[in-house]
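RECORD TYPE: protein structure
NAME: NAD(P)-dependent alcohol dehydrogenase
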Amino acid sequence: MKTEMMKVAACTAYNDISAIKFLEQPIPIPKPNEVLVKVSATTVSAGDKSIFSLTQPFMKIIFGLKKLRQPILGSEFSGTVVQVGDAVTDFSPGDKVFGSSDIKFKAHAEYKCINEKKAIAIAPNNLDINSAAALAFGGCTAHTFLNKANIKSCSNVLIYGASGAVGTAAVQLAKAYGAKVTAIASTNNLGLLKELGADQTIDYTLTDYKNLLGQYDIIFDAVGKMDKTILKNALQPDGRFVSVAKGLSSETKIALNFIKKLVEVGKYKPVIDSTYDFDNIQEAFKRTITNKKVGNVLVIVNKSDS
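PREDICTED:
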């Protein structure tokens, strides 16, 4: 019997866009507790950029010294279940799903397998399947850190780096919790953040936000670039500072279903910066690496599913 093949995008070298190559690999066969998803769309996220751009030797020990040990990046995906393992009970062929494989990656491919108990859920019924691919990374990351900070309905929250995938998610999630939200971003992105629900915005190109005094219960650095000491005076005495640079995101089925419910009641939407065909995934990497994207960089893998 002829082995069925799929196309994958493989990063065959660190820090080299031209080394992102298309390869053919066998379509994976799901294990008893796995589902096989035909990928409709994926993203090139800040997480992908971080691994692609690795320079630290101690991190390369984990991911590969001279090149990526597992070269297929991409953690977020959406698509259609086409096959299920014998022990699967939560999904059936034909289900529209979205999810994340976290640091196992492998979503930059036409098909991928994932354990049904991991971060995979039925896609929201009011969102197109391609856009659903952009729900997991930003949404789960914001969900993790806002809950780590013990967000409450009465919380006064400051979000630094509010225009990226994590930041735009954090603004919406914090508002869904009932918090008051102040978002820091550049001039061009303030209107979007107000549309997403921010109560106040601060233009970091015009305002010296470092002199803010004692207002916030939570400060969330959504890009991992802020030194806690810079904004220490902006925290209430018992306030919490959390940063994506200090800890790991928890991408779980519970978080996905929470985000899905918010989408379905109109309280959350993924912000799409730009969209690329799979064949142009190098351009998607370039866009993410610029650090100028607003929200998510989407990659359409299977056009027939759009």
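COMMENT: Residues 5-135+270-305 form a domain with the Quinone Oxidoreductase; Chain A, domain 1 fold (CATH 3.90.180.10).
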